[in-house]
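Bumping my old thread because nobody answered last time. Still need a sequence for this structure:
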């Protein structure tokens, strides 16, 4: 470790010049934080499994460790995997987003066979309904369907989800920069924002059990599961936002809500545009 490198204390978030000092080939001493007087990064000595458990438990200390005190070079691979997982759920019409689309467009059912308790389609303006045709449910399990068509449809859905995520990250970065414009905090590099997104988006993995083994599960159980995962994901993103941008929780919550709305609206309309272009 060099003295010029900038790290973060996992406890208080203050900068630190080094994580540890070496006093010989077998002697290593963890650096103390000048602000809180605690160890700058206790996770250096922890097993990666412990770090993963703390990340699942939404520990800000573990999040700071990964985002500031490790290289985390494979974040872009993680982002691709997570986007593909989210795409698969939406492509199968088996996600909370599809249920929301069914309500907006006035579809009686989606793939989970959940009848929407609230139908807001009658109050929607025409520009919203103009993209509903692209979300008409088609059973992907029928044997006589053309696999090439379904494969192309998956890639179209992937691009629409990707466009929504780009808008999500861009909106969050722009609003957070505006929110911290009058502060003395250091600006967040775009690479760190991407790493933060990939770290928080890991929460979507909790939809995997229902996607894989949930075919025999009741519709009510499935929708409850998706809602719980969505709430958990929102809290994880909120935690990461406050760690990276150091904004107040209320302001971060409002910005995060705007980001989610922008992402979903973009994906909703992008699907119709892309299917028009590729059909």
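Sorry it took so long. Here it is:
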């Amino acid at each position: 470790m060099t003295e010029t490198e900038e790290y973060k204390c996992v406890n208080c978030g203050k900068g630190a010049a080094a994580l540890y000092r070496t006093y010989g080939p077998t002697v290593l001493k963890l650096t103390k934080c000048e602000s809180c007087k605690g160890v700058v990064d206790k996770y250096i000595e922890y097993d990666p499994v412990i770090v993963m458990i703390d990340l699942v438990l939404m520990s800000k200390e573990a999040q700071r460790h990964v985002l500031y005190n490790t290289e985390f070079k494979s974040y872009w691979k993680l982002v691709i995997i997570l986007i593909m997982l989210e795409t698969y759920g939406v492509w199968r019409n088996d996600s909370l987003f599809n249920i929301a689309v069914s309500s907006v467009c006035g579809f009686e059912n989606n793939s989970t066979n959940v009848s929407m308790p609230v139908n807001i389609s009658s109050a929607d303006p025409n520009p919203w309904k103009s993209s509903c045709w692209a979300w008409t449910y088609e059973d992907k399990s029928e044997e006589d369907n053309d696999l090439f068509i379904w494969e192309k449809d998956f890639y179209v859905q992937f691009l629409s989800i990707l466009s929504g995520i780009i808008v999500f990250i861009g909106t969050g970065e722009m609003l957070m920069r505006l929110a911290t414009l009058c502060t003395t905090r250091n600006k967040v590099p775009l690479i760190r924002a991407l790493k933060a997104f990939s770290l928080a988006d890991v929460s979507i993995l909790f939809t995997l059990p229902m996607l894989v083994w949930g075919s025999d599960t009741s519709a009510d159980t499935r929708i409850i599961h998706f809602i719980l995962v969505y709430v958990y994901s929102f809290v994880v993103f909120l935690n990461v936002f406050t760690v990276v941008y150091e904004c107040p929780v209320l302001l971060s919550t409002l910005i995060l809500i705007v980001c989610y709305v922008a992402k979903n609206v973009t994906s909703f309309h992008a699907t119709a545009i892309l299917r028009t272009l590729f059909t």
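Strands lie at 7-8, 15-16, 20-22, 28-30. Let me know if any region looks off to you.
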